[in-house]
Amino acid sequence: MAFTFLKRTRYFHTISPAGIALQSRIDKRSYAARSSVLERVVSAFRAVTGDDGVSLGATVREQHGKDESVHSCRPPDVVVWPQSVEEVSALAKICHHHRLPIIPFGTGTGLEGGVGAMKGGVCFSLRKMDHVLDLHQEDFDVTVEPGVTRKALNSYLRDTGLWFPVDPGADASLCGMAATSASGTNAVRYGTMRENVLNLEVVLADGTIFHTAGRGRRPRKTSAGYNLTNLFVGSEGTLGILTKATLRLYGIPEAVVSAVCSFPTIQAAVDSTVQILQAGIPIARIEFLDDVMIDACNRYNALSYPVAPTLFLEFHGSERSLEEQVTITEDITRENGGSDFSWARDVETRERLWKARHDAWYAALALRPGCKAYATDVCVPISRLPQILVETKEDLTKNCLTGPIAGHVGDGNFHCLMVLDPNDPHEEQRVHQFTDRLARRALALDGTCTGEHGVGLGKRLLLREEVGPLAMEVMQGLKATLDPKNLMNPGKVL
Amino acid sequence: MAFTFLKRTRYFHTISPAGIALQSRIDKRSYAARSSVLERVVSAFRAVTGDDGVSLGATVREQHGKDESVHSCRPPDVVVWPQSVEEVSALAKICHHHRLPIIPFGTGTGLEGGVGAMKGGVCFSLRKMDHVLDLHQEDFDVTVEPGVTRKALNSYLRDTGLWFPVDPGADASLCGMAATSASGTNAVRYGTMRENVLNLEVVLADGTIFHTAGRGRRPRKTSAGYNLTNLFVGSEGTLGILTKATLRLYGIPEAVVSAVCSFPTIQAAVDSTVQILQAGIPIARIEFLDDVMIDACNRYNALSYPVAPTLFLEFHGSERSLEEQVTITEDITRENGGSDFSWARDVETRERLWKARHDAWYAALALRPGCKAYATDVCVPISRLPQILVETKEDLTKNCLTGPIAGHVGDGNFHCLMVLDPNDPHEEQRVHQFTDRLARRALALDGTCTGEHGVGLGKRLLLREEVGPLAMEVMQGLKATLDPKNLMNPGKVL
Predict the structure, then answer these.
(1) Does B30 touch chain A (CB under 8 A)?
(2) Under an 8 A CB cutoff, do A412 and B481 touch?
(3) Is residue A464 a part of any domain in this protein?
């Protein structure tokens, strides 16, 4: 009894006032009645996960109410840590019965506010479900639980000769990456999560467990029924909780060569990119950094790259094929006025060479100590890149904003790493207006408001502009079908 | 007036008795009342498309009630030929108002009975919408109307240095290929329709027109909202009519080399395939033909390939990279007991070499003159291929069935080209039972009942076994949301 009392005490302490305040948005009953509901819910959660699997602590809730974006923290009322799909399903059923929002949580490395508990509710942290299951080396596939991160999988695969190449930078969970349709530097060669997820285990808001391509199925291709896998890839937790992902793997390339090359103009860098792709070079990475970004990287890492539009390139293949890839690429860049290649073969030199690109985020932050950073994310057809990059740089200058540019230029995808003073609401407002203008510029050039970060909280209006009201209605219809009570990550995407 | 009378006469003549019989399934009213409805509908159609755009002719209807499968002809009541998306929408609205089924029709080259008018209704032939629109060479994309076929697009692209590589064999319409999630020989390198459609214009059953990724959008990647594009790819006309597709294009490879190699066992051929993929060879095609298929090809084309499990290979790349690809591949096949390569560089020799593979269908048919053929279609993880191929060949022998095997072995996808006597119902029954056993064998090995032909009519029960009742419920929910009156190609997929 004493134990129960303690739990109750902790409970009332920790959910008040934030928890109760949030909860009140979905529950208009009296304080006592609401408290009683929450108490019953938490007891039910504990019966599923054990005491360790539930937390009402303010700090824990705060940690789970925010990702790496500038969106403010919206803590959930409760955080739960299920350890199996059956526990996820049982917890979802409790939420469903009480109409409590469910917010899936991977590593919190998202960039569009996808984990904020906009209507309170229950954060499902999937961190404890972290097993790599069913590796099939000969078939180049593996199944992972939702707590397995990209780096953890690649560590696991180290001695197999295989790897999973999708690399958004952060060490995100693979199911989280599926949820946001993540991609990153290697997408130009290996595709995004859309192309690399073969099957998903999903728990719907009502606790139903199903497999998008059927339990245990992992053919390389299929025409069997609607493509449910790719409906859930990119659904940002708004349709269901991803509890397993079956992924494509690739052979680790025999050799890797990296190169850096600077250009007189943005146009010359983009022209080179188009010509490299046209020549059929199976380039693994082709990253663009603008002059401001290179300057920041030079300062941060004490490097001395020319302060000019720059391409960072990486080639994967056999020793012999790399030689040819590099030669043709160098010819192309030289014809476009590019500098001689700085290039690197061994791991150490390659890492030094790419350090500028890898540290871009921190280099940007170091431009203005004490500031925070926010990465925009648009994607346009490659031919439109010079126009949008030039206009965007003019916009930044005109509005006195700090936003060095880095991009996965082979896909037409780029980011402005906005550095802003967290204590200056005017600057925040100007950044917000700038990012909206940037997104609309991308839309005007046949592009998208998000190439890889997702819609989350911040781009819901832009999504409507992008796809139009009728496609929005279709999306809303799908959402209503799969989550009629609007419990799955409410307030996101749509 | 005479003209109207003539039209009426033709109308009553041609829809009776088949048309009326079919129509009666969805309309229980009296003959006179039904005729009157049909008459009004046809007048409304003519007002949209002109007289040329509507046909009630028995022959025309029969031509549109059947694909290349063994499923019997189920002619629609009417065939319409819209010439623009606005006409498609206007015709759909009429159908919607009168609750008439809508069956989209491309080239009729499907293999699972997808175009049969199971409940009568209106066939939308999209043949007259055959323009290639908006080619963007620098961005490697193009938009096509639904009547544009694969070969027509590649002819159009001839002088651009670009091509569209997805090749299911038949000269299918590209939107039809999108509708069935088609793939074929090049998928191992270039992916299937799932990976190569960037955007679709869709008309829903109620006439709503929308674009799955937003009007005119064509970024290489996007995370903006639910992936509606890939919900419609593979939907087999059951969710909406595809009226435009934006497709990825690829640079035509500098050089192409083909090779043929025979093996002592199926296992040796499959092991070679796995090792070629593991070695990172970017093989463009890797096709398996079993001994029976090779024997048939030898007879049909007066060739003299060893009657043994055989791989047909194709390499795309630069001259120099091809040399390396071929050398490594030859090493791998030799280590697995493969014969020396027969290989070919110039177009003519290559075509001669591949003729055996290209004519496989006709070679199979020639095994039993006067018979018809039916291609099964399953896909399993590659490591499971030897087991399923051996078991399937034993099954064929035991049941005295003719079914030479050809497969896209790099994807784990293969077909038995069943040759059967159209006048022998017992044999037809045995073939049916065999194909069910084959599909269940694929399911037992983590595979799918269809790798590229789709579910259509024949595999609906198998789909349920493959994905399970809960995923089926999700699919049915999506269907009900987008097509609540069940007018879009009813009786297919679900």
Answers:
(1) no
(2) no
(3) no
Q: Do both A169 and A226 map to the same domain?
A: yes
Bridge pairing between strands A102-105 and A122-125: parallel
Query: Inter-chain contact A136–B317, Cβ cutoff 8 Å?
Result: no
Whether B475 is in a domain gets the answer no
- Which residues in chain B are contacts of A212 at CB distance < 8 A? 471
Task: State how beta strands A78-80 and A132-136 pair.
Answer: unpaired
Alpha carbon of A80: minimum distance to chain B alpha carbons (Å): 25
Q: Does A278 touch chain B (CB under 8 A)?
A: yes
Torsion of CA A447, A451, A456, A458, to 10 degrees: -50
Same domain, A163 and A218: yes
Q: Chain A 68-127, CB below 8 Å of chain B: which residues?
A: none
Q: Is-contact B488 B480, C-beta < 8 A? A: no
Give yes or no: residues B397 and B275 share one domain.
yes
Q: Are residues A227 and A285 in the same domain?
A: no
For residue A254, what are the β-bridge partners?
A: none
Give me the domain span that covers residue B247: 132-251
DSSP B250: E
Report the chain B residue with the minimal C-alpha distance to residue A192: B221
In this structure, are B144 and B104 located in the same domain? Answer: no
In this structure, the answer to whether residues A139 and A265 fall within a common structural domain is no
Does any CB of chain A come closer than 8 Å to the CB of residue B383?
yes
Cβ(A124)–Cβ(A105) below 8 Å: yes
The answer to whether residues B303 and B359 belong to one domain is yes
Q: Is A51 exposed, middle or buried (0-12, 13-18, 19+ CB in 10 A)?
A: exposed
Identity of the residue numbered B352: R
CATH of the domain at B352: 3.40.462.10
Strands B54-55 and B78-80, how do they pair? antiparallel
- At residue B314, the 3 state secondary structure works out as strand
Q: State whether B413 and B275 are in the same domain.
A: yes
Residue type, B270: V
B493 domain-assigned:
no
User: pLDDT of chain B along its 494 residues, tens only?
Assistant: 222 222 332 333 333 333 444 444 444 556 676 678 888 999 999 999 999 999 999 999 999 999 998 899 999 999 999 999 999 999 999 999 999 999 999 999 999 999 999 999 999 999 999 999 999 999 999 999 999 999 999 999 999 999 999 999 999 999 999 999 999 999 999 999 999 999 999 999 999 999 999 999 999 999 999 999 999 999 999 999 999 999 999 999 999 999 999 999 999 999 999 999 988 899 999 999 999 999 999 999 999 999 999 999 999 998 888 989 999 999 999 999 999 888 898 989 888 888 888 889 999 999 999 999 999 999 999 999 999 999 999 999 999 999 999 999 999 999 999 999 989 999 999 999 999 999 999 999 999 999 999 999 999 999 999 999 999 999 999 999 999 999 999 999 99
The residue of B196, B221, B248 whose CB has the most chain A CBs within 10 angstroms, and thus the best one to mutate to test that interface, is: B221
Query: CA A379 to CA A415: how far, in whole Å?
Result: 9
